## 1
Amino acid sequence: MKNENTSKKFLLEFFKDSDIEDKEGVLTINNASEDFEKFIGKKSPYKFVFDIYTHNKINNSDLIMQGSYFLLAIRDYLENKGQTSLVKIQAIPSKSVLSKLKGERKFYEFSFITTYQYLNDKKQSLNKFFIKDEKILDIDVSKFKTHKGNKEDIKDFDPSEDYQIAKKKLHEKVSAEIKPIKSVLKKKLERELTRIKDHYAKQIKEKDDEVDSCVNKIKLLQSKLRHTSYERDRNIIMRLIRESHERLKMLKKRSYKERLKVEEEFHIKDEVEKHALSIKNTLINITAYYF
């Protein structure tokens, strides 16, 4: 359920400028941008569902789960889209919002896509920050009346300082988001490392016990040999002693402890790499709003 909510939130944010219907477990996207339709090679509407049962009932639906085609396509689209936009504000919804925008009549929106990868899983989240005069704005631009801006209207387009603020804010947000992920990964890694170490400790003990068994068997046979006078029995005992010596020699020659330790270290390194958390932040868009 948590993954479903995360994916659904991601889709709602990405298609927020489209006509969206959300009912009976089906998220329908109408009138997606032509740019995205060309990129993905499929025209809207898109019918997104989040469980196999609904997918089987709804014709032409796309099942959304981690790693599904549409989520990967959106990620690639966003990562390749990086651009700068200008938006002119025609009307501001309230005086309270206007008070937040006093002073210079321009602010920036920085949009990032953050990709988390761990345990063969990959997740993305969209993060947007509105910044004016190096301060974070808490506003909802979807309520503004706007139209496409003109680059001739802005002579001093320089988001560099505000961009540093946005990156710092993104770092804070990502750091908070990864805490529970890192905690889960740490516990899983500890369990796997314990399992590996126990396994190889058991393997080494078994080999140690086999060596001790060979040594004790040789001692016992040598004792029997000293107290045996019949030639046939002596030959049998001597053959058994030779076989035990060969087995002991083979065990020692293979250096089983060193070999098993190398294997253990390899598997430990492999598990550490599997449980590592990879984070990639990509700036996909800078929008300058002005009025």
## 2
Amino acid sequence: MTSTNTVLKAAGAALIVCSLGFVAVFSYLARTFGYPDILDRGAAEVLPRLLAGGVRLRAVWFLYSALPLGILFAGVASAPVLNRGGRELRALGVGAAIAACLAMMIGLLRWPTIEWTLARYWQTSATQSQTALTAIFDASNVFLGNVVGEFIGEMCLALWFFALAIAFWRDGRRLVGYLGMGTALLLAVAGLRNITTAVAVVAQINNITLPLWLLTLGVLFLREGRKSRSPGGAEAP
């Protein structure tokens, strides 16, 4: 087994763990923090609830922030798969996966860092100070959350999905290619939810399809890692 096979298998395992981790953390935050609906609430409601969650809630946010590292690893490891669609597609796909990871991590890390610090100040601050804290909270949510973490992060992730789909399609795996293209399109449309409420239903569907597709890619990468290919790209007998 070549080093490429080993890396692809590791990437597949990472995506499976990442997918299951997203579901577990999302479910926990939905139950204990009212996530994601709470993202639309103001500082006066969100910050006290964040602090009330204590060290456990903060640790969960750190864990959530670390999960995109699985996408980073898998994105770099997917280079041989993407290369079947050409060097340009490989560069585009790997670059998109790296950008997606960095953007999503920045967006998520604001919760156990910036927002956590604001929450600690909130409980002892006067009304005038709370006005300033609210402004910082709103600004960090709009820029780091809505723009960087969600819009840029999800658009780049959709681009990686789309690049992989093209690579699978060109490799003769048409069904996987079409499913990947559909998932990428769905994710891209869902990424517009902070611009228009018209895609709210799509965003809810995406909350289900995204971890399922990450899980699917994980299985596909595991299978790719078990294959042995000749230098020309064809599978060895």
